Amino acid sequence: MKAAQGVRLLLVDDEPHILQFLELGLINEGFEVKTAPDGASAIAIAADFKPHVAILDVMMPGMDGFEVCRYLRSEETEIAVIMLTAKDEVDDRVKGLSIGADDYMVKPFSFDELLARIQARLRNQFPGLLGEVRCGPFRIDGRRKEIRHRDEVLELSPTEYELLQYLVINHGLVLSKPMILDKVWGYDFGGEENIVEVYIRSLREKLGDKEHRIIRTLRGAGYRVDLL
């Protein structure tokens, strides 16, 4: 799935080698990319560049990623924010989400995973930018809230649509139940994790996936969509 031309990304990190690696990879995917080595520079660049997605490192000298995220949100501009951190701490994650971050990734991470997260944010927040997204036998039309599988429109409830979209866009990645609940139901969802199994079962029936070859279960880990 190739990124659309005209999608603007702002990368903010005080580690030059990370900036260079991500910049080259994302430009190769078709994105328009600008980088900043610190929070103050990021804010100055964002004012003119108006990025669709900002990828912010949390731990930076001076103005940290939390402050940058808070500032971007205060400007009332529509932007998706993905925060990066070297610390796998729940408090940091909750803080980032509570001030307006849309996603959170812990270093080290794979480039493919970051790309999938960016695509997911664009699909959720800027569906018109990507138009119809094709992933193997799936076609996702965010404007119609419609998913086709092998050219057949699937009859999905709104939650089934959000769940299948999340699984397909992140195809090849193992998604745990907590991750799925966070992204589809919201991080403050107070229900049981078993709700995920119920919806997965329904999606498999609608896909004719009796052998679980499309939506695979990885015991103790979560679910993964394979594009067959």
Folded structure, characterized:
This protein has 228 residues and is of the alpha/beta class. The chain has two domains: 8-125, Rossmann fold, CATH 3.40.50; 132-225, Arc Repressor Mutant, subunit A. The chain is 43% helix and 21% strand. It contains nine helices and eleven strands. Strands 2-1-3-4-5 form a five-stranded parallel β-sheet, sandwiched between helices. A hairpin with a 2-residue loop joins strand 8 and strand 9 (152-153). The two termini are 15 Å apart. The relative contact order is 0.10. Residues 130-227 bind DNA. Keywords: DNA-binding, Phosphoprotein, Transcription, Transcription regulation, Two-component regulatory system.
How are the secondary structure elements laid out?
Layout: E1 8-12, H1 16-28, E2 32-36, H2 39-49, E3 53-57, H3 65-74, E4 80-85, H4 90-98, E5 103-106, H5 111-125, H6 127-130, E6 132-135, E7 138-141, E8 146-149, E9 152-153, H7 158-169, H8 177-185, H9 194-207, E10 215-218, E11 222-225
Parallel strand pairs: 1-2, 1-3, 3-4, 4-5
Antiparallel strand pairs: 6-7, 7-8, 8-9, 10-11
